[in-house]
Amino acid sequence: MAWKERLQSAMAPCLMDELITPEVLGFDIDGVVADTMAVFVRLARERYGLVGLSKDDLNEYDLFRCLSLDRSIIEDLICLTLDDEHTLQVPPFPGAPEVLTELSRHAPLRFITARIWPESITEWLRLQLPEVPQNRIQVIATGAPEAKLKILQELGVRYFVEDRLETCHFLAQDGIQPLVFDQPWNRTDTAYPRFHSWVQLRDCLEGINGWGDEA
User: Fold this and answer.
1) In terms of DSSP bridges, do strands 159-162 and 109-113 run parallel, antiparallel, or are they unpaired?
2) Lower CB count within 10 Å: N or C terminus of the chain?
3) Contact status, residue 162 vs residue 30, Cβ threshold 8 Å
């Protein structure tokens, strides 16, 4: 397939000392699978005329600290970005649907999100992963990043792909290995394995770190 050829040419060596078994891997969604802030930037340009804004300007997870805008504008953009309508407009990161589809053949996909409501992002995932049976997609909405730890421990997750550094810190303190998905807002810390693409992540998964012969 053409996408495999493109991704294979970009493959980098695994960043981990050992390969990750799919059964012990979990994922955040926004900022990892879903390029949610691309919609935030688009809405900022369309609704508030912030044509010069880019994702690179979002260099802190706390948007109120990195954007010189009225608090009400930022709150409006956050609410719009995360509502049902705009959630379904979020693009996936390149390679994410393909890698997750392949991963689902080896283990169920576990997504732990700090969103309050899981319905719209679950629908989004199903739309992005049409070849994955619905019973292979598990989405748990915690409502707060700090609540992720208990859920991950209950699920037996040992590796978690995350974009928020503060979440990475407290997961690491309790024995869960954070895998940082590179974003402008998480580049101040190099303590954890960092992945710049789904290609790099795929290359670290045991059992699927080679493309194989499948079509």
Assistant:
1) unpaired
2) C
3) no
